[in-house]
Amino acid sequence: MGEIISKETQLIVHHSESDLDLNTQKLIKRAKEAASNAYAKYSDFLVGAALLLDDGTVVIGNNQENACYPAGLCAERVAFFAAKSQYPNALIEKVAVVARRRQDEHFNGAAPCGSCRQVMAEYEENQGKAIELYLLTAEGKVYQSESIENLLPFKFSESVLNGK
User: Fold this and answer.
1) Tens digit of each residue's pLDDT (9 = 90 or more) over 41-98
2) Spatial CA neighbour of 31 closest among 115, 107, 139
3) Could you give the C-alpha distances from 21 to 25, 27, 48, 53, 77, in angstroms and in order?
4) 13 φ, ψ to 5°?
5) Cα–Cα–Cα angle for 60, 62, 132, nearest 5°?
6) Which of 65, 76, 93, 124 is catalytic?
7) Coil, helix or strand at residue 10
8) Distance in angstroms (rounded) separating the CA atoms of residues 43 and 72
């Protein structure tokens, strides 16, 4: 029988956005606004991300597509890179991610891709403090993770590069 080497991934399921504190509700609203301005000319899949920094600043991002598909960038990475470039010493407290097809009225939920998970995990590790994650579902529920680590327990990290 094998040995358990990692903690169980824990997600909290909220039945609606109204179950969340006011700051988190506002963060999700900002993510929705960001998604509405996404440059999603090719996929018509609108994604928005909003980060809450430790000083109360909110930084948003949305997906940016390009005819040369690999040149585009996901909403999460746009937001994280913008936060680090504009507020290099701030800690990221929370991130909300929302998504919908352009023709849909309601947000239908999507989880961050592998590249975004890797970027978010490194930011979390570098700041030495967990980043809460909030994801909307198609049913209007909100998944909450206390840490990005829950999404990517076997992340590639600086310790691998340094042989530690």
Assistant:
1) 999 999 999 999 999 999 999 999 999 988 999 999 999 999 999 999 999 999 999 9
2) 107
3) 6, 10, 20, 16, 25
4) -105, 120
5) 55
6) 76
7) coil
8) 11
- Superfamily grouping for domain 11-154: Cytidine Deaminase, domain 2 (3.40.140.10)
Q: 111-158: per-residue pLDDT in tens?
A: 999 999 999 999 999 999 999 999 999 888 999 999 999 988 888 887
Using pLDDT thresholds of 50, 70 and 90, give the confidence band for residue 5: very low
**Domain map of the chain by residue range?**
11-154
Residue 125: active-site member: no
- Tell me the whole-structure pTM to 2 decimals: 0.90
Backbone angles phi, psi at 114, to 5 degrees: -60, -40
Nearest to 32 by CA among 147, 140, 122, 119: 140
